Amino acid sequence: MATVELTSANFDEVTSRDGIVLVDFWAEWCGPCKRFAPVYERSSEKHPDIVFGKVDTEAQQELGAKFDIRSIPTIMAIRDGVIVFAQPGALPESALESVISQVEALDMDDVRKKLAGHKH
Fold first, then answer.
1. Where does the pLDDT of residue 57 fall: very low under 50, low under 70, confident under 90, or very high at 90 and above?
2. Are 22 and 73 in contact (CB under 8 A)?
3. Phi/psi at 90 (5° precision)
4. How far apart are CA 54 and CA 82, in angstroms?
5. Which end of the chain is more exposed for a tag (fewer CB within 10 A), N or C?
């Protein structure tokens, strides 16, 4: 599956669905982002069941601000509408695959219980 461009108009709709959505926050001028792009693209080909989204932080500044993106690239993993991972920095392919495996292995009922326990 090719990557999906995420904007303010479609971000919530895409990321609130059941399943896994990976989000790459990037910008055209960012060298590490450009080097990471082929890794992200290859991973999207290996995992057709996962949505691989990209947010251009220059064009979508409000999304960058909403998620307090201070460094790019930043990779975020969302499963069943819950952000379960976010980390700045370009990941090597093996690390990206490891993140995907860990997100797939999560017990989302347990994650939701823990989140509910943290709300005040």
1. very high
2. no
3. -75, 130
4. 17
5. C
> Above 70 in pLDDT, residue 1?
no
Q: Which residues are catalytic?
A: 30, 33
Which residue type sits at 107? D
Distance CA 112, CA 64 (A): 25
Residues 6+ apart with CB under 8 A from 119: none
- Helix, strand, or coil (residue 115): helix
Residue 52 has phi, psi (to 5 degrees) of -105, 105
Question: CA-to-CA distance for 24 and 35, rounded, in angstroms?
Answer: 13
- Total residues belonging to the chain: 120
Q: Distance from first CA to last CA of the chain, Å, rounded?
A: 40
Q: How far apart are CA 69 and CA 75, in angstroms?
A: 10
Question: Which residues, 6+ apart, have CB-to-CB distance to 99 below 8 Å?
Answer: 75, 77, 85, 91
At residue 115 the predicted structure's pLDDT band, cuts being 50, 70 and 90, is confident
